Amino acid sequence: MKTFNFITLFVLIFIFLPVLSYSAEKDSCLNCHVSLKEPAKHVHKVLNMGCELCHEPVQGKEHPQQKDSIKLNQKMPGLCFVCHKEARFKGKSVHAPVSGGMCTGCHDAHQSNFPKLLKKESPEICYNCHDKSKFNKKVIHMAIPAVGCNTCHAPHASDHQTLLADEINPLCLSCHKSKASGKHVVAIPGGKHHPLRGMPDPSNPKREMSCVSCHDPHSTDYENLFYTQNMCVRCHKEF
Predict the structure, then answer these.
(1) What does pTM read for this prediction?
(2) What is the pLDDT of residue 115?
């Protein structure tokens, strides 16, 4: 009976000791890192599993006296891929901060009041790198202030150009369904309509004609998100 109690006690200690050590470690870190005690709407799930899950153990009295004494277990983004599936961050087009391992440029590693642990909401977070003036002209694509950049662009990686969630025309038509026929474009003699695809873009022969041949997808100073006041002259110089 005594043997049984001893074994049971040993097993319980073995099970709960890691939890207790994590708790003690967490409390020790929070004595100085008090900002992590402040409540936030979104908390990184690994935060309660102990600091040493991501950080190297503190050696002796190096921390906090020695600068940069707290180090990650491995470099980013490798550290993040321990939990987050790496395949989701690969594609023909990869966001530069992702390929550069700068995950914490957009995400807080511990907690945040914004979804996905972002440091700011979209589109404001995007303006940290992308010039806001290009997205804030007289006529703004309503999707930007309404739902942010992620509606059209993948934040990490994509198999489409400029991190788009789909090819240009299908992506535009996912919202502008009534334009699918192409009849919103000026008619050409003979009952035809201006092409939307299937030919080179005269203003940029390296790319195919698409919705963005005439419309700026972000913002412009002209109605209907046109690049210029007289869009036809942009390609048809004879006018």
Answers:
(1) 0.80
(2) 94
